[in-house]
Amino acid sequence: MKTPKNTICIWYDGDAEAAARFYAQTFPDSSVRAVHRAPADYPSGKAGDVLVVDFTVAGIPCIGLNGGAAFKQTEAFSFQIATDDQAETDRYWNAIVGNGGQESACGWCKDKWGVSWQITPRVLTEAMAAGGDEAKRAFEAMMAMKKIDVAAIEKARRG
User: Fold this and answer.
1) How far is CA 154 from CA 12, 123, 130, in A?
2) Which of 24, 26, 116, 151 sits in a 20 to 30 Å window from 78, CA-based?
3) Are 47 and 24 in contact (CB under 8 A)?
4) DSSP 8-state code for residue 36
């Protein structure tokens, strides 16, 4: 398989394989393609430890690098997953938060590895793209939410 031109690299503290396998089980069009072990000792591990995991999340090629504790995840990077309805929103949100993750605000949550996710119903994205009062009402409704409530966004769009 040819290496993609652009790949997202996510730094983990030893848990890249577990994270990649969780993502592959949770999101469609996701898989673990390869697990590469270190050929020699390195600053945060030993020869034979999992060093790099080649995986895909919702069609996006990624690698997980077990680089150690030197760097932590921040909200400066997040995956944004578009959802079609409340059931899909709930499924992804509950999978992430229910597997040791934590809720945040405005449709954001973190998985147990600290990676941020935006679980974003398309109705919210469409409202924001509409602009004007519709976008303002949807935005104001979203600002009061943790997990996005699709019915509340639809109501806000209508005014």
Assistant:
1) 38, 7, 13
2) 151
3) no
4) E
For 60-72, the pLDDT digits (tens) are: 999 999 999 999 9
The residues with which 50 forms a beta bridge, in sequence order, are: 37
Domains (range + CATH), the chain: 1-71 (3.10.180.10), 73-159 (3.10.180.10)
Indicate the residue type of 6: N
Extract the tokens encoding 12: 């983990």
Alpha helix segments (H runs only) across 43-85 = none
pLDDT tens profile 13-57? 999 999 999 999 999 999 999 999 999 999 999 999 999 999 999
Q: Return the residue matching tokens 């030893």.
A: 14
CA-CA distance, 135 to 92, in Å (whole number)?
Answer: 24
Measured distance CA(132)–CA(129) in Å, rounded: 9
User: Do residues 83 and 30 make contact, with C-beta atoms less than 8 angstroms apart?
Assistant: no
Residue 34: name the closest of 63, 12, 10 by CA.
63
H/E element holding 114? none
